[in-house]
Amino acid sequence: MKIFNFYTGLKIAVTALAITTCSAFATHPNLVITQSDVEKMRSALNQSGRFNDRYLELKQQVDQQLAFGIVVPLPKDGGGGYSHERHKKNYQLMYGAGIIYQLSQEQKYADFVRDMLLEYAALYPTLDVHPKRKVKSQNPGKLFWQSLNEAMWLVYTIQAYDLVVETLTDQDINDIEHKLLRPVALFLSQGQPSTFNKVHNHGTWATAGVGMAGYVLDEPQWVEKALYDLDKSGKGGFLKQLDMLFSPQGYYNEGPYYQRFALLPFVTFAQAIAHNEPERKIAHYRDGILLKAIDTTIQLSYNGLFFPINDAIKSKGIDTIELVHGVTVAYGLTGDTGYLDIAQQQGQIILSGDGLEVANALDEGLATPYQFRSVAFGDGSQGDEGALVIMRSKPNGEQALLFKPASQGLGHGHFDKLTWQFYDKGQEIVSDYGAARFLNVEAKFGGRYLPENNSYAKQTVAHNTVVVDEISHFNSDVKQGNKHAPTLNFFETSEYGSVSSGQINTAYEGVELERTLALVELKELGSTIAIDLYSVNASQPHQLDLPLHYKGQFIDSNFDLNTQSQQMTALGKKNGYQHLWLRAQARPEKGLAKVTWLNENGRFYTLSSLVNGEESFLFTQVGANDPNFNLRNEHGFIRRVKGVNRHQFISILEPHGEYNPSKEYTLVAQSRLSALSHTQQGELTLIELTVADKPYLIAINNNKGASKRSFKYKNQSYSLDGHLGVYLMTNI
């Protein structure tokens, strides 16, 4: 395995790192791209291949902008508006032009960066805070409506400046540094200490931008402050973010969407540290947490898209530029050809030293399949605040089950303890709403999170987990949510599939929620099922709701529905219920209650639930009390019981059949599950079911140790080694 230069040596403790300072940094460029990288990249332009293709593509894009001219508008628009997008485009252009200058050595590209920086240097001193600044809870920028975007501007712009600074006159350097770069860096640090010192993705971008500016502008104290917070106490800063925001396995506390977003400043600043101060051995920090974070970001995806938990835009996936940078660095660090598989899927080459290595390796056909795993990623800085569990299976099309006995996830977290999602044949089947937001669409609340993000998307009823008395977990209090995390009881993957259990007793006072989910392979049938066992134990009687949100068209149920075909009403008045239309309701008789829907992947899905005759089924559609049509009209149903202090929701999700309207055939449109029963033998859960006339016994050992044991069922002896066993019953 190849190890990159900033992965050498031993891990150095924070206390030892704090002693290291820098007085004079290397010649330019030396942030992400070094002079050595430039020489290698220039040589690569003499041969055909992906790297040269990307160079020519970027050069053409920059040339078009050179012809168009420089535009630096007065800031006035929120996210998605013209001035916002122009300033965003400008920092990307400056960065791109700086790279083209270094590779082509044509002065016009350096002049383009210089001239745009001088335009900004003339504008910036005249600016007050942005006119479209957000509410008081968030610090404003000057060029942008929030300081987060200002920090992103600096991360890119300081790299552009680093790439061209040696071509500038003393007067240009003085104007650009003293009227622009230094004021921006000071504005983002001393001017906004609450953000700069914050352990949060906003703080990550700010510290990365200011720290990189410290290297370029020869301000070693800026680097120290970026690493250890403004007073250099270590209570905040870049290293504290590495300590607190990632679990030991590299899972980011705010979830996959923000993990990929924060990845770029983490990786970029780390490379700058490594190139300027290799003695810090930054990539060894926390046992190589940066590389773990990159790999974990990939694992947190399905069919190219990130699992949409917390405040997530559901269209974000592994081709996002942040992860393109991450994968490029990961391959440079390790030489692992599995990363080339992801790079090939991303279809983007970074013009850097590592990017050259990726391009050459892809040209040589060295990519091998990246291995996605069934895994439980511990949450919290110590990995002891629950976990995010991914179960994967491949019969008849790759499947994934996401289970979330994870922590709150700070302000971007949702009130969805013990929720789950299911994916099959490339599509979301049991769904999560994600965030209510039209990113950078100014007409939709300035591109910010919509009011419905709080009133619906974050609320518990918008997820697939139990709601008590129509009140969201922690009574929708983020501070309370951040104090309490679920417990991961166990996770196991084996030849039978995967199983996991989690519980929490702090989401509601006097209520314990415990859920066990399993993705089970029925090898004789070449298919899988998902098992869901959800137990609620409370000190007082309550109303319990268990929603399931699904993607697809309702097909059938094996019980009659009282459908609201003429007039609909909202299901409730608050906590997300006010946004759900009640479309139909029913109370199935005791036994097996089935609901079937058809997904756009052409497969049918049936949720079969054991009911006691007291459960109501409420069929819902999102969109009530939504005057601006901000919410997507998605479908679901809620299983409801009233006045109980103990209840267990038991269900099986079964993929089956095929619908092909093009070729005009339908196969196995009805559920093959004909019988389901459940018994308990101490800590042993036994589920008997019949699928396609084949009787199965599924055993789940709930003992956390799960030592090998024997048991009897219907006069037959069985042996169970671990948490999950699957048996084809042949003697009944």
UniProtKB/TrEMBL annotation:
Q: Where is the Alginate lyase domain?
A: 51-298
Transmembrane among the record's keywords? no
InterPro entries associated with the record? Alginate_lyase_dom, Chondroitin_lyas, Hepar_II_III_C
Record carries keyword Lyase: yes
In the UniProt record, the signal sequence range is 1-26
Q: Which domain of life is it from?
A: Bacteria
Cite the Heparinase II/III-like C-terminal domain residue spans from the record. Answer: 381-602
The residues that cross the membrane are none
Keyword tags: Lyase, Periplasm, Signal
Localization recorded for this chain is: Periplasm
Q: What is the protein's name according to its record?
A: Heparinase II/III family protein
